[in-house]
What we know:
Blueprint: H1 7-31, H2 34-55, H3 58-64, H4 70-87, H5 89-98, H6 104-131, H7 134-158, H8 164-179, H9 181-184, H10 191-197, H11 210-235, H12 237-250, H13 252-268, H14 276-299, H15 311-330, H16 333-336, H17 340-364, H18 370-393
Amino acid sequence: MKLPRASLPIALASAVSLGAQVLFSLVMLRLFAPHAVGEFSVISQIAFFWMTLALAQSPLKLLADVHRPAAQALRAALHGSLLRWVLLLPLAWLGVYMSALEQAFQLLGWAALLALLQLGWYLAQPLTLRAGSTRSTGLGRALPPSVALVVAGSLGTAWPNSGSTNLLLAAASGYAVGALWLMQAYNSPDAAAVKADTARVPTQADDRSALLRVVHTGADALTGVALVLVWQRSHGATEAGYLAVLLRVLGFVPTMIHAAWAQVLLAQGTRRHVSPLWIALGGAVATAALGLICVFALQMQWLAASWTGLAPYVLPLVLWQSAACLLAACSHLPFQRRRARAFSLAAIGFDALQLTVLCAPLALGLALDPTAHAWWVCAASAVGLLALSAMLLRLK
């Protein structure tokens, strides 16, 4: 099975990025006070939500619109994203205000800076795929989290138990390095070859309006936030922690498939003869292997005893994320077949299904235990993802 040339470097870079993020979390717990970690977590989450809504899936549009020169597509993506970044300022301020943290205006400034630098990095990644070398693409994904890790470790060692400012500075440093790839991509010697390759599928495009992309992004973000909040409200913070940790670990595989397969095909404007089903099968096997590793680690008591509650979540989440691998493997198809608008509408419907199943027990006052609730949510999510994937595979 022949994969695109850039797939392996991007997969390896994604693994390095994930490892750096895990180590960053350990550095936070080891070298920084709980109050600092909590304040940083709130501000970074606000910044991420701000950035996600501001982008409104502009990176995908930058990849899909291969008929437009990379520089022109980037200018359009930057213009729209920066405009939304400004318009979303009141919403970001509301989030900071509701957090009840001290020095709210200073923290809003940090959130604005993190959101802006993240925005640049997230646009730089598809740009390097379209107009950069394979080496540059991999470094652009792996280096920023590694820089953030080094800065956090250095500042935390020099000033133990310091405040959140050092963590915010470390995160900003990493995102700033990533944003530099916006300029670096244009100087790549492989740019001409990549641009020539994109001419193979002239019909590829993102046919969605900016409003639809904003609504799609908002629905995805709302579902992700609601999952953790509803779980905490229904089953407590500990159970919510179990769910969030496993989602982060198992969700790595579909994320890597989207980055190393779907995004590469969109950037190159090519259609592979390899069926997405084979890619999805490999992802499902990898997801199951990660699940088995989690169970084995619990049985061997490699983790603290407080994490034993993870075990009941492993199987339902493996099924959910295995189905997510199929959707990730098919996610380039609606753009290559000019059916992105239909895909977004269907995806918004899937988000509504997830929210309904997630919130129904709480809204109806039903006393579901966490395991049963997890099975309902994961089964509904898996069925919805399989239906979405079947729709994409049938697109003409």
